[in-house]
Design a protein that fits this description.
- The chain contains 4 helices and 7 strands; from the N terminus they run βααβββαβαββ.
- By secondary structure, the chain is of the alpha+beta class.
- It has a single domain, classed as Gcn5-related N-acetyltransferase (GNAT) (Aminopeptidase), CATH 3.40.630.30.
- It is globular and about 40 Å long.
- The model has no long low-confidence stretch (mean pLDDT 96).
- It binds coenzyme A (COA).
Length: 153
């Protein structure tokens, strides 16, 4: 199984929609459900940071995405490297794809001068929380049903 990470663009819209739906199938309370909204979301992510979206391909087939933002100003009034989204298709979970995508995201944000990375996770998204903790993220403030996690790089 060969995992290849490359930059994503608007041509990956349909693949993003499929993988997003697959990733959030059992976690819909934190996700967009309507296809129209998922498409709009992908376009918003691209507008936020055109260089910051990466796709993982397995033998040439998209299996996961990560979306970063090198120009994000956080809720807590600091400039941080933000990770807005990470999704891995259900059938490809547990194979190290998420970890590879996070490495690509961290390298990208580091290359843009960031020393601190921020992301938000749904309070009941225990799997993602464990995943981030494994990768060195620490849970902090809670805003509504979202928990802020940060990592110094
Ligand atoms: C979270 C997600 C991206 C993880 O992707 P993945 O490709 O399965 O993760 P990996 O295989 O790279 O796992 C990396 C590490 O995290 C750990 N991990 C992953 N999922 C885990 C889980 N459910 N419970 C405990 N640990 C987990 C792995 O054991 C692995 O540790 P290791 O390196 O010591 O073996 C994926 O489950 C997903 O798409 N979830 C739905 C969408 C979502 O919740 N996104 C986050 C929104 S904030």
């Amino acid at each position: 199984m060969e995992i290849r990470i490359r930059k994503a663009g608007i041509e990956d819209l349909e693949a993003f929609v499929d993988i997003y739906k697959s990733a959030y199938r059992n976690m819909q309370e934190y996700a967009y459900r309507k296809e129209r909204n998922i498409k709009y979301y992908f376009k918003w992510l691209l507008r936020r940071d055109r260089e910051g979206i990466f796709v993982a391909e397995i033998d040439g087939k998209p299996a996961g995405f990560v979306a970063c933002d090198a120009m994000w100003h956080s809720f807590f009034d600091e400039d941080v490297g933000e990770i807005h989204e990470i999704v891995v298709a259900r059938e490809y979970r547990g194979k190290g794809i998420g970890k590879k995508l996070m490495e690509a995201a961290e390298n990208y944000l580091k290359s843009r001068g960031h020393k601190k990375i921020e992301l938000w996770v749904g309070e009941r998204n225990y799997a993602a929380k464990k995943f981030y903790e494994k990768l060195g993220y620490t849970a902090g403030e809670k805003v509504g049903r979202w928990i802020r996690m940060v990592k110094e790089i």
